[in-house]
Specification:
- The protein is an alpha/beta fold.
- The protein folds into two domains: 179 residues, P-loop containing nucleotide triphosphate hydrolases (Rossmann fold, 3-Layer(aba) Sandwich); 88 residues.
- The chain is 36% helix and 13% strand.
- It contains 13 helices and nine strands.
- The strands form three sheets. A five-stranded parallel beta sheet has the order 2-5-8-1-9. Strands 3-4 form a two-stranded antiparallel ribbon. Strands 6-7 form a two-stranded antiparallel ribbon.
- The longest helix is centred in the C-terminal third of the chain and has 15 residues.
- The two termini are 27 Å apart.
């Protein structure tokens, strides 16, 4: 990171003559992933208790909390700790249906082949296994993550009540069910929600519930496990940065920054060390790179930011 010029955009500088410098940007590489970060995740005692409970009883673990508090990372942490990687990750979207989780039948290709080959083919050849099918039929237990379920249409959770309970569903194209044959191979299901809307009661009754709350001590531990990324920052500076961050969270913001934003902020501070005063001003509006932490224009106004 030392040879990367942080201030590429400067009013006094000439246009960039060598765009290859962009290839040296330190935090845009695709190698960083939830899987790689799993060993450094720090769960609280209550989260560990909820994880152990869900594993023991076989119910889905529903994790809620502010964006950036580590809900998705918790699922990868479970897979890492149990030695059952890789995780099966289903990212819920606004148009997701429960069927997307089970399988996809390529009817267009099926009828196309039937038309040009003159006879109907075996439908099983046109089935694409979805995340739940993969998890159910895995020879070893797997972690299946249903990420941000609150983004889906309201019927999505209720449409999965039977499948999540029994770990079984019927496939009419082949006329037989897909089910977990061995009890010990039952998938560990983790479901995350940003609590943007309340989930249906029948669905909630079938889950082990945990809400990740922002915790000062867990934040300190998260920083400590990533200390190598902030080698340019002294322990005293890190302590001061955390104090300013916690003060910012106490400022009654519309969108409070969470652990993820704080860790990115420290990366930026480490990368740009020397381009700002050694002391972080107690005036929160003067914090460097405040746009990493605040994501709402009203919040900028509320802390007196002048940008």
């Amino acid at each position: 990171m030392e040879d990367y010029p942080f201030n590429l955009i400067d009013q006094q500088s000439e246009p960039l003559q060598d765009p290859s410098v962009l290839l040296r940007r330190p935090f845009t590489k695709s190698g960083v992933s939830f899987r790689e970060d799993a060993p450094r995740f720090v769960p609280g005692d209550q989260l560990k208790e909820s994880i152990n409970t869900a594993i023991a009883v076989g119910d889905p673990l529903l994790i809620t909390g502010e964006p950036g508090t580590g809900k998705t990372q918790a699922a990868y942490y479970i897979a890492y700790r149990l030695g059952i990687e890789p995780i099966i990750h289903f990212q819920v979207k606004s148009d997701s249906t429960s069927h997307d989780l089970l399988y996809h039948f390529d009817s267009v290709r099926y009828f196309h082949d039937a038309h040009f080959q003159g006879q109907l083919q075996e439908k099983s050849q046109y089935l694409e296994r979805g995340p739940m099918w993969q998890a159910i039929k895995s020879p070893t237990p797997r972690v299946m993550l249903i990420d941000e379920i609150d983004k889906a249409p309201r019927d999505f959770p209720n449409d999965l009540l039977f499948e999540l309970d029994k770990m079984e569903f019927f496939v009419p194209e082949i006329g037989e069910p897909v089910k977990c044959e061995e009890r010990g191979n039952r998938p560990i299901v983790v479901i995350t929600s940003n609590s943007e809307r309340r989930l249906p009661e029948p669905f909630l009754r079938r889950c082990i519930y945990h809400r990740i709350r922002f915790d000062d001590e867990i934040l300190r531990q998260a920083v400590e496990t990533r200390r190598d990324e902030y080698a340019a920052l002294s322990p005293e500076f890190l302590k001061m940065a955390m104090q300013r961050f916690l003060a910012l969270r106490d400022a009654n913001l519309r969108k409070q920054p969470a652990t993820a934003e704080f860790l990115v902020w420290l990366k930026v501070l480490a990368l740009a060390a020397g381009t700002y005063p050694e002391q972080l001003n107690t005036d929160l509006s003067q914090l460097p790179y405040l746009g990493v932490l605040l994501k709402d224009h009203q919040d900028f106004d509320d802390v007196g930011a002048k940008r």
